[in-house]
Design brief:
This protein has 466 residues and is α+β, with helices and mostly antiparallel strands. The chain folds into three domains: 5-78; 84-195, Phosphorylase Kinase, domain 1 (2-Layer Sandwich), CATH 3.30.200; 201-464, Aminoglycoside phosphotransferase (APH), C-terminal lobe (Aminoglycoside 3'-phosphotransferase, Chain: A, domain 2), CATH 3.90.1200. It has twelve helices and 17 strands. It has helices spanning 83-90, 152-162, 203-216, 227-234, 236-256, 272-287, 296-306, 347-351, 357-376, 384-412, 422-447, 453-464; strands at residues 27-37, 42-52, 55-65, 71-73, 93-95, 100-104, 120-122, 129-134, 138-143, 145-146, 171-181, 184-195, 201-202, 268-269, 314-315, 327-330, 333-336. The strands form four sheets. The protein has a seven-stranded antiparallel sheet with strand order 5-6-11-12-9-8-7. Strands 1, 2, 3, 4 and 10 form a five-stranded antiparallel sheet that branches. A hairpin with a 2-residue loop joins β11 (171-181) and β12 (184-195). The longest helix has 29 residues, at 384-412.
Length: 466
């Protein structure tokens, strides 16, 4: 054993990617480790099992280990991680204490200089994983929290890349593990390497900037009856891009639903139990908040409409956590990132087939957040400035929704996953939006009370859409 696991207990809760900061740590055990370079200090990748008083969670730790067994995160010295580019390019497998760590590079040229020879740096904005950029052209994402089985980020990006889907960064490498845990031979995905987008901009940040500019163009002389025309004129380029985003997301769903690509991806009918499960989740969320007490009757009336749906479409593999922070704008068009699903959900939940309308609802809710977040930067709530700009924010959001849905629905018919009946489609989409907004409401009540108006507004809008 190179690593002394107990020395890690004190430092784990301080790590940004550690997802159990509020849980009591009962213990930690080393599952396996692999020595990648001697050092000193030695570069080691460790898989540990952290015990939270009965719940065991696996984590991956790239470590720099001293001779006494004490360790610190290897990301503190990024250059030491350059060896990972070489291992992937060569397609090496390295024996650990009990299992094997595999490094693959299907998109790397083994005869060319491997990634990481010129520069290695750490991306600093992530919450649940850690990404390393090699030579500004390859990015390797370490999955920090691990699950036994296939990680959907690697699984779906590998498939989309092999199918020539141009709107994800091409998957070029991977890290996996196979070995024994509790007497069973298991596999775990440890990381995915993709083309690094040097010319892309984060859509959330870019759209926020463009919306602030749009609000700054509002003039007191603007007539309310010209609001739609002026919004289209002043934000036309952005709205056109949002229509293209709808097309891209639909194309992704169509690709992920083609059973000739992968039989396991074949769409399955969305059954009555799936619809009733959606209703039950919304009902449960309603009981947890009093913020929308005045809307409960209208929400329950909307839920009753779901009972009348005869055919709810199909379930497919989806992104699972889609919003503007998960897409980038590049000169080559939109790029979709992070197909991992919601990180704190179980692997089974993240790989489960779901209605693609869940992804659509997530993006629609993100337009609402973008419009109001930019408004917060320009005016105080309830101020005269707010009252003057809020109708323009609503108008922009309405047009963004319209353009996105037009782009999405025009392409999505190539798949077999949406309800044929328009009323059923609208009812299901509004239900998914309400579910998402109730989740957001609970979060904002706990973390940003001044933002609760955003999901409240979203629920009202979803109830109006018929």
């Amino acid at each position: 054993m190179i690593t002394e696991p107990k020395t890690l207990l004190a430092t784990l809760p301080d790590q940004r990617w550690f997802g159990h900061k509020d849980n009591a740590l009962a213990g930690i055990e080393l599952v396996d480790e692999v020595l990648l370079s001697d050092g000193p200090p030695a570069l080691v990748i460790a898989i540990v099992a952290v015990d939270f008083e009965g719940e065991v969670v696996y984590y991956q730790l790239p470590l720099l280990v001293q001779e006494d067994g004490s360790a610190r995160d290897a990301t503190e010295e990024p250059d030491r991680l350059g060896i990972l580019g070489e291992l992937m390019a060569r397609g090496d497998s390295v024996k650990g204490n009990s299992g094997i760590f595999h490094f693959g590079g299907p998109g790397l040229d083994p005869l060319a200089e491997p990634p990481g020879r010129s520069s290695v740096r750490i991306m600093g904005a992530e919450q649940s994983n850690t990404s390393v950029v090699f030579d500004e052209n390859v990015i390797l994402k370490f999955f920090r929290r691990l699950s036994v089985g296939v990680n959907p980020d690697l699984e779906l990006n590998r498939l989309l890349t092999s199918e020539g889907f141009d709107h994800v960064p091409a998957q070029v490498g991977e890290m996996t593990y196979e070995g024994p845990i509790d007497g069973d031979e298991i596999t775990m995905d440890l990381g995915i390497a993709q083309q690094f987008l040097t010319d892309g901009v984060d859509a959330w940040e870019d759209i926020g900037r463009r919306l602030r500019t749009f609000y700054d163009q509002v003039d007191a002389a603007d007539a309310s009856e010209d609001q739609r025309f002026l919004t289209e004129e002043r934000a036309g380029d952005l709205l056109e891009q949002i229509g293209e985003l709808g097309d891209v997301i639909a194309s992704m769903h169509v690709t992920l639903s083609r059973d000739e690509v992968e039989p396991d991806l074949a769409p399955v009918p969305m059954e009555a139990d799936d619809v009733s499960g959606l209703r039950e989740r919304i009902e449960s969320a309603l009981t947890d908040t009093s913020r929308v007490a005045g809307l409960r009757h209208a929400i329950r009336e909307r839920l009753r409409v779901l009972e009348e749906i005869d055919e709810a479409g199909a379930k497919t593999r989806v992104h699972g956590d889609l919003h503007l922070g998960q897409v980038m704008i590049t000169p080559r068009g939109w790029m979709v990132l992070d197909l991992e699903g919601e990180p704190l959900r179980s692997l089974e939940e993240r790989r489960a087939k779901q209605s693609p309308l869940k992804d659509v609802a997530g993006m629609l809710r993100s337009f609402n957040y973008a419009a109001v977040a930019a408004l917060f930067d320009r005016a105080e709530p309830a101020s005269e400035g707010w009252k003057r700009l809020e109708p323009w924010a609503d108008q922009w959001e309405s047009l963004a929704r319209e353009r996105f849905l037009n782009g999405y629905l025009t392409k999505a018919h190539e798949g077999r996953f949406l309800p044929d009946d328009k009323e059923a489609l609208v009812s299901l989409l509004s239900a998914f939006e309400i579910e998402k907004a109730l989740y957001e409401l609970a979060y904002e009540e706990s973390h940003r009370p001044e933002w609760v108006r955003i999901p409240e507004h979203g629920i009202r809008r979803a109830l109006e859409d018929r």
